[in-house]
Design goal:
8-stranded antiparallel sheet
Length: about 170
């Protein structure tokens, strides 16, 4: 008889994203995108994402955050990352991807969480994580208006830290 229990996820690959409604747990995927996973982990560890807004949220598509300016044009002080596109994973509900400009090597700190599958993004954006708990809380994030999905008075990340490092 074989053991069907999935392998344990290293604690360093789990991120706790705390919203006003509760905790979302993200499993990083360094097997798909090691540079993006490490960037997200290190920014979360330093508290970069605390109180940042989900500035662009499109119903049936995705919630985007990680920009301290809330405009969709901001990022961290770190250099942009080279894309880590893969054909090994797909953009499905709960996928966490790296937001970028039209230039494929422009991802920095912004990320998005998928509400639904989006095959048009496959191989075009870097996948570096997946929501493994709390997707129902992501579903409650305030939506934006119009085609841009920009949110007036957006919901914010309370804190975000690696599971191995509790929020201060």
């Amino acid at each position: 008889m074989s053991d069907t229990t999935p392998p344990a996820v290293p604690e360093g690959d789990l991120i706790h994203l705390d919203l006003k409604s509760g905790r979302v747990v993200i499993k990083l995927r360094p097997d798909l995108a090691p540079e993006h996973a490490e960037r997200f982990r290190s920014l979360a560890a330093e508290g970069f994402y605390d109180n940042t807004p989900f500035h662009r949220v499109i119903d049936g598509f995705m919630a985007q955050g990680g920009d301290p300016t809330g405009t969709g044009t901001g990022g961290s002080k770190l250099p942009d990352l080279k894309s880590e596109f893969t054909n090994k994973a797909r953009f499905v509900r709960g996928t966490v991807g790296a937001a970028r400009t039209a230039h494929p090597h422009s991802a920095n700190s912004q990320f998005f969480i998928m509400f639904a599958p989006a095959p048009s993004l496959d191989g075009q954006y870097t996948i570096f994580g997946e929501v493994i708990e709390g997707m129902e809380l992501v579903d409650q994030i305030k939506r934006g208006a119009g085609g841009s999905g920009m949110v007036s008075d957006p919901d914010r990340i309370v804190t975000m830290r690696p599971a191995s490092q509790p929020a201060a």
